[in-house]
Amino acid sequence: MFTIHLHHLRFFSFHGVHEEEGILGNDYEVNADITFNTTENITALHQTINYVKIYAVIKQQMHIPTALLETVAQDLAEKIYASDNRITSININIKKEHPPIPNFTGSVGVSYKKDFLA
Fold it and tell me: 26-36 and 108-115 as β-strands: parallel, antiparallel, unpaired?
């Protein structure tokens, strides 16, 4: 079993339920862990999960304004899986760097794990 990690991916996007989030946008960090099984000795790119392809899926999805981060995470998991059906598990973490909460210091976020039949 292998896990491909794409961590600390930074995006400026317009997700959120508040009107100002759709106007002002926000900084986001995405972490994705994609697990797949293989019995082969991996010696070529086609035998593994191409992280360049996965990054393109994440980048495209992060630029689609969506009200809830939970929806973004679920959509990401489904689109990543659709890119390679050898995937057995996807774990997505999305962090919103500057939530519109008065006098708030820190970040907010969601984590989503989806297992697929092997």
Answer: unpaired
pLDDT tens, residue by residue, 64-114: 999 999 999 999 999 999 999 899 999 999 999 988 888 999 889 999 999
Q: Which two tokens stand for residue 62?
A: 């992060």
Q: What is the secondary structure of the chain as a DSSP string?
A: -EEEEEEEEEEEE---SSHHHHHH-EEEEEEEEEEE---SPP-SGGGS--HHHHHHHHHHHHTS--S-HHHHHHHHHHHHHHH-TTEEEEEEEEEESS-S-TT--S-EEEEEEEE---
Dist CA 16 CA 26 (whole Å): 9
Q: Which domains does the chain have, with CATH numbers?
A: 2-115 (3.30.1130.10)
User: Position 38: which residue type?
Assistant: T
